[in-house]
Amino acid sequence: MFAASAEHTRHEITLLLRLLRPTGRADLDWPPMAHWDWRGFARACDHHDVAPFIYYHLEGLAGKTDPPGLLEHLRARFLEISGRNYHLAQKLVELTSLLEEHRIPVLAYKGPTLAMVAYGDLAFRSYSDLDLVIRPEHLVKAAGV
Q1: CA pair distance 110, 14, nearest whole angstrom
Q2: Within 21-138, where are the H helices?
Q3: Farthest CA pair distance, the chain
Q4: For residue 99, what are the contacts with CB-CB under 8 A and spacing of at least 6?
Q5: How far apart are CA 66 and CA 57, in angstroms?
């Protein structure tokens, strides 16, 4: 593994930012494989919760050469995160439907809602819980439901 240095960190962040742009470029400036360990870049993707989006973006770039192992790591994270996200989104639909059946107004925010608004896909934004807004006068009834 390479020594942690400002140059490598800066390069990883620069690559990450380039890949987060709406229009990507196929001529990514990956460092020479002999001098760079892609795992630092993968950790940056995980740390910033963008691994699914980066995976999708790299998969869509034509004529690019990815560091060996990077795409496999990102694909595994994509599958893990998207599976959890779709499960939570299903639970959100069930929960909001149940609350509405009991005439409890509810507003979902962040989580699946933000993923759909910001990315148009549940898989691209990592979340691990569901956030709901319920009026104070409905809290006791909602807790009972």
Answers
A1: 27
A2: 39-47, 51-60, 70-101, 111-119
A3: 63
A4: 105, 106, 132, 134, 142, 145
A5: 12
